[in-house]
């Protein structure tokens, strides 16, 4: 009999696994290894940011489509198991060993050189021919210079290797923080940026967010295919990136929703930015490359909200999300701020 069946850790893991499969079935999520890893970690409660992300999607009845599932995996699971980290660790270990060997050799060579020069000095005291002493000293210095050149070349080579590792780590970190489809920041980078921006906003600096959703995107995908849909997402991401400031963070929020965090921007300024984005997207013309066919115009609905001192980030985003849905409910292709949301609530 397998003793693992008596292990409490096994029972706990089996319980989590069962709950994960049931939850995935309720959300109609395909039981792939990647999706299972996401929901196992979610139900295990080991990642607060993953839990918050999924809870927010569930609270707003968002569908867990293939793109959303992929985003969750790439943002919260994949960085934990990156093979790049393992390879980099091994390379660093080898380089540290080589550096230690170089330093040991340098110390030994320095000791030998000092010993040789000391012996030359003793011979000078003993009355040995000065010409012979000069020649011997020159020989020792030449040998020392050769050893130093060899060590310097070795250190230069290892320095270049360290530069390569540093660049590799930088690219790896960038990939871990970037959405693969749009090239925008992913949820991991968004959450980090929001936390830092919130800390600054608590001191009185304005902080706003605009949340953007593509109108009738499901119908567009159904009619023209996901390949064209992906092109549309990349196009809108490009417009978003170009219309916000350098200090702002445009990111992919999930599915066809994009978001931009605007530090040091109040509601009015952010609404103007959102309107520029909406107008630029409405003016875009999309052509199917394979046939030259001009596709129907696309539009976006945008919600805008400003951070309120002391509130939770989830409440901040949720208010912006409600403004977005008011924009969609009001006819789409428009910008709605939290002020209009409050007016709608008062009127209701």
Please, could you describe this protein's structure?
The protein has 348 residues and is of the alpha+beta class. The protein starts with 7 loop residues before the first helix and ends with a helix. The protein has a five-stranded mixed sheet, sandwiched between helices. It is built from twelve helices and five strands. The protein has three domains: 3-81, no CATH class; 83-176; 187-347, 2-Layer Sandwich (Alpha-Beta Plaits). It has helices at residues 8-26, 33-44, 48-59, 66-77, 83-125, 130-176, 187-201, 217-224, 226-243, 267-282, 313-329, 338-347, and strands at 207-214, 249-254, 257-263, 300-306, 335-337. The longest helix is centred in the middle third of the chain and has 47 residues, at 130-176.
